[in-house]
Amino acid sequence: MIVFGFTLALIAIATGLAFAAWRRSPALLADGFTDARTQFIHLLPRLAIGVLGSGFLAHLMPKETILAWFGPNSGLLGTALASLAGALTPGGPVVGYAIGAAALKAGADLSQVMAYVTAWSLFTINRMISWEIPSMPVRIVLLRVLVSLPFPFLAAWITLLVR
What we know:
The protein is mostly helical. Helix content is about 85%, strand content about 0%.
């Protein structure tokens, strides 16, 4: 039901933006649809591969290991391991979220998956090496990482409270 509500909200937002573009200029609306079609065609194969891959990955992950390291009883160590795994996971959303979904299917606790996804969003090491460190002073990147360190643990704790 929540997914349906979010889908309706996204449809309403997209419709409102399309109407605003049309009001400004019909050509702007046409350009927007052209860009949307290009992005859709570009992303669709990646999404399909990610969804298929997460389905296979869920069955390939050893359930006993996932339950022991990332299951409901894994505690603070499980959160730390999930955070480390998130930081070490390269790739974009198709990879990160697919691994999180596969871990859930394999028996990982939701709080550990939240820690994983949060760490993946904040600390992906390959992004830091390829983008952040070349474009910013290393001390700024390290300060950002230090300030962000509690967030995967905070996400896991809030998930435990909300459930």
